[in-house]
Design brief:
By secondary structure, the protein is of the alpha+beta class. The protein folds into two domains: about 180 residues, Roll (Pdz3 Domain), CATH 2.30.42.10; about 180 residues, Alpha-Beta Complex (2-enoyl-CoA Hydratase, Chain A, domain 1). The protein is about 30% helix and about 25% strand. The protein contains eleven helices and 22 strands. The strands form six sheets. Strands 3, 4, 5, 6, 7 and 8 form a six-stranded antiparallel beta sheet that branches. It has a six-stranded mixed beta sheet with strand order 10-11-13-16-17-22, sandwiched between helices. It is globular.
């Protein structure tokens, strides 16, 4: 290993451990979500990754949460970037763009405020409702919420089911579904297929892939395409061995036989994407956008096909230091490993992502009575159906 890289990596690990210790001792406001390249168990996103990566037979960790995705706000508090349908924050009327300031009078932290023993990797149900203080624009509001104790894997799956609806637009009917969770479980795929069957009589669908997380299966694509013609190809830069290519194909999009009895949705689709659309959802948007009847709407995705992994290299060299913090860090870090060798249809995807056919900016900080990206999507559908 290059000596300079080795030292830099070691010092970086040391500084993270020291910073985590300072957090525990001083109660500082820290969120690893600001740095997507690494996550610790002090960050809610750590448990989203953990939930979706849990191996068969193991149970994802349940945590207390409100059903929101957040990032630290510039002026303090946590900015809501998404609220899961049917979950406490959404039910209490909190929206994207709101900034959560306090909970029961104390400074709010997305994980630690409701999981006071998370530093010791202990999670117990939060037994009482809580009062949230949040800011919407210049107005400070309060809401009473009752946290749920559930794995984020189950929460994302439930929010997907809760999101499905249809509504009248002029003399047309538009369907909507937000794929919070993409899973390869047979039961989930069957359920999703049944939900989409209920939308088959609509004149068009808004498919919301913002904040979507999980793993892509061929069946997800089959739900919206009548055939697998022009199916995306997965290869690697250079000429690596076939085992490496097969590994990436299985990780990103395992090959499965198409169900010929499946009734695919064949009407116009508007797909919502932005910087929160990740990995599998990016590939789904990319593949579906090959159809003329599909329009991607929103903002460019980031092209993040990699995965989070526990660091196994320099980790052993700072083992003694980390042992002193292992309760707070739950055994270490999850580091993002970029898929910069992966080619999709012969082109680099990591860091490139999907560019929408219809650009519609919607910064997370925007306080709006509506969703401008959703409205553009509806207008797109109304123009073609």
């Amino acid at each position: 290993m290059n000596t300079r890289l080795f030292v830099s990596r070691l010092l970086g690990r040391f500084s993270i451990c020291v910073f985590a210790a300072a957090f525990l001792l001083l109660g500082a406001n820290y969120s690893a979500a600001a740095d997507p390249e690494s996550l610790t168990s002090l960050d809610t996103a750590f448990y989203r990754v953990q939930s979706f990566d849990t191996k068969a037979g193991a149970k994802p960790l349940a945590i207390n949460h409100l059903g929101i995705e957040t990032e630290q706000a510039a002026d303090g508090g946590y900015l809501i970037t998404a609220a899961l349908e049917g979950y406490p924050a959404h039910a209490a009327g909190l929206e994207r763009g709101d900034i959560v300031l306090r909970i029961d009078g104390a400074d709010f932290h997305p994980l630690l405020s409701l999981n006071s023993h998370a530093a010791e990797s202990q999670f117990r149900p939060h037994s009482a409702p809580a009062e949230l203080t949040y800011r919407r624009g210049a107005t400070v509001l309060t809401a009473r919420v009752e946290p749920v104790f559930e794995s984020l894997y189950d929460s994302y799956r439930s929010a997907t089911l809760n999101s499905v609806l249809s509504f009248a637009a002029g003399n047309k009917v538009i369907g909507y579904v937000r794929l919070w969770a993409l899973t390869r479980e047979t039961g989930d795929l069957v359920t999703l297929s049944q939900l989409l069957q209920s939308l088959h009589d609509t004149d068009g669908i808004v498919l919301d892939l913002r904040n979507s997380y999980g793993y892509l299966a061929s069946e997800h694509i089959d739900l919206f395409r009548a055939s697998r013609s022009d199916f995306l190809s997965i290869s690697l830069v250079g000429k690596p061995n076939s085992n490496a290519i097969e590994h990436e194909r299985n990780r990103l999009l395992p090959a499965r036989q198409r169900d010929d009895t499946l009734r695919a949705y064949r009407k116009p689709i508007a797909i919502l994407i932005d910087s929160s659309t990740r990995g599998a959802a990016e590939l789904l948007a990319y593949q579906l956008a090959k159809l003329d009847r599909v329009t991607t709407v929103g903002e460019p995705t980031l092209g993040r096909l990699g995965s989070y992994q526990r660091d196994g290299g320099v980790e052993t060299l700072v083992e003694n230091l980390e042992n002193n913090l292992n309760k707070s860090l739950d055994g270490g870090f999850l580091d993002y490993s970029a898929a910069d060798r992966v080619l999709i249809d012969g082109n680099v995807f990591e860091g490139i992502g999907v560019k929408p056919k219809r650009n519609a900016p919607f910064p997370f900080e925007t306080v709006s009575r509506g969703d401008p990206q959703f409205q553009v999507a509806v207008n797109v559908l109304m123009g073609v159906i």
